[in-house]
Amino acid sequence: MTLTFLIYKAILVVVVFIITLLVAMYSTYAERKVAAFLQDRIGPNRAGPFGILQPLADGVKMFMKEELIPGTSNKALFIIGPSIAMLTACMTGAVIPWGPSLTIGGETYSLQITDINIGILYLFGVVSLGVYGIMIGGWASNNKYSLLGAIRASSQMISYEVAMGISIIALVMTTGTLSLSEIVQQQHGWHWNILVQPLGFFIFLICAFAETNRAPFDLPECETELVGGYHTEYSSMKLGFYLFAEYINMFISSAVISTFYFGGYNMPFIDRFVHDPNWLAILGVVFMFAKIAFFIFVFMWVRWTLPRFRYDQLMNLGWKILIPLSLLNLLITGVVMMRHEIMNLF
Amino acid sequence: MITTYLFYFLSFIAIMFALMVVLSKNPVHSVLYLVLTFFTIAGHYVLLNAQFLAAVHIIVYAGAIMVLFLFVIMLLNLNKETEPQKSTWLKASAAIASGLLLVVLVGSLKGAETIVPTNTFNPNIGLIEKLGKTLFGEFLLPFEVASILLLVAMVGAVMLGKRSIK
């Protein structure tokens, strides 16, 4: 625990935080551009070249709007709601390995804020806490549409957490570790987990859509039924926090998907061309962010392609299709792993 | 040294939040204070180097069970008008009974500080690898029995939740 170590970690925390916010900011821009592309429009192009300053304009607008707190609401919880949504969204970045270690002057600097040996459980725990932001906000608004939105959100998130957890257990069985940095190191070269766990990946992807409340699972904010969903009563930057938290969750989900199933910062055959470990580390970060960008695009692609589910369809998919499928995946994984012992029985 | 201070700090806020669970008038506030109490208890687990237990404690209690509690309480929409009125006798007897329980607890803990632990504390006991080997080796049978118990409870819940079979 030297002082340089502490300073380095503090700087890394701030950098990850800033990058998270920046990516979330430009995800809003990307979302509008992707929507425009898929609908054969141009999209935002007034603020700056290609509309590149649009997120700034939106942010300023959000800050400048009048702040309304409904008179019948529970004021403390009304403010705590969006704060928790934002807090839990930002907490998950701490365990993700953004790149291999850098070596400067004989000292190694890990590009992961903290490598705890229960990294996956930490992620899962923080994700399961994310529901409180929505529930508290929806209830504190004292509005029936908000409450309905909040209840939809929480039941949806609890339902999909089960399938997500079981698909992660299958992944943990094959990797044999809960530490994210070890999972990435095992996927060196082309040994990506997607090749080992294809079914688990699809289950995880679907559950990630549901956990982030993104279309086609965005029933908590279904405009045609619930006005605005859990954030009906919110205005100004509190609304901004909710919307922003969704984009941060999307970014983190993409990072987790790339880490778990797509090799994180690894790229096949790259160490044949680049030999300096520091350059490899920098390229690793670039690959990591390229993969993240791709998955963010997938999130948007799906949102602007698929219509919204009906609520009973959502629950049927979660409980009657995804959970049995993930259990089947668990069983297959177990049988394949123990195949020698099973063969010896006969 | 830091762990001692952290222990006292965590214990203090754990008791504070636990008191707030009982004292707050609004049931939704009570549930949220209970969630905070679980966090402080998870902090105690981390101090004991039982990270797995801490994470699972958060996932299971704060992440799932308390969400369901919150769910039910929000739907019931409890408030002053629907609160059942209890008679003064009932309140007084409850206060006396729980006060006696407190006396018993304090009395039983009075001599606890003189007890010396016979086996030394193994700091690796809570790490996940060690825990897994212990659970699936030494304590395999109790572990399996506990899982059957959970399965039975699950089947029972499904049966109760089902519409009556004709």
Protein architecture, described:
The complex is a heterodimer of chains A (346) and B (166). Chain A has 346 residues and is mainly α. Chain A has one domain. The model of chain A has no long low-confidence stretch (mean pLDDT 83). Chain A has helices spanning 3-38, 54-64, 75-91, 119-140, 144-175, 180-186, 193-196, 198-211, 223-226, 236-261, 270-273, 277-303, 311-337, 339-345; strands spanning 102-104, 107-109. The radius of gyration of chain A is 21 Å and the shape is globular. A two-stranded antiparallel ribbon of chain A has the order 1-2. Chain A is built from 14 helices and two strands, in the order H-H-H-E-E-H-H-H-H-H-H-H-H-H-H-H. The termini of chain A are far apart. Chain B is an all-alpha fold. Chain B folds into two domains: 1-79, Four Helix Bundle (Hemerythrin (Met), subunit A) (Up-down Bundle); 123-166. Chain B has helices spanning 2-23, 27-47, 51-76, 88-109, 128-136, 140-161. In chain B, helix 1 (2-23) packs antiparallel against helix 2 (27-47) and helix 2 (27-47) packs antiparallel against helix 3 (51-76). The radius of gyration of chain B is 21 Å and the shape is globular. Classes of the chains: A mainly alpha (346), B mainly alpha (166). The interface between A and B is medium-sized, with 24 and 21 residues.
List keywords for this structure.
heterodimer; A: 346 residues; mainly alpha; two-stranded antiparallel ribbon; 69% helix; 2% strand; globular; B: 166 residues; Four Helix Bundle (Hemerythrin (Met), subunit A); 2 domains; 6 helices; 0% strand
Annotate the secondary structure layout.
The complex is a heterodimer of chains A (346) and B (166).
Chain A: H1 3-38, H2 54-64, H3 75-91, E1 102-104, E2 107-109, H4 119-140, H5 144-175, H6 180-186, H7 193-196, H8 198-211, H9 223-226, H10 236-261, H11 270-273, H12 277-303, H13 311-337, H14 339-345
Antiparallel strand pairs in A: 1-2
Chain B: H1 2-23, H2 27-47, H3 51-76, H4 88-109, H5 128-136, H6 140-161
Helix pairs in contact in B: 1-2, 2-3
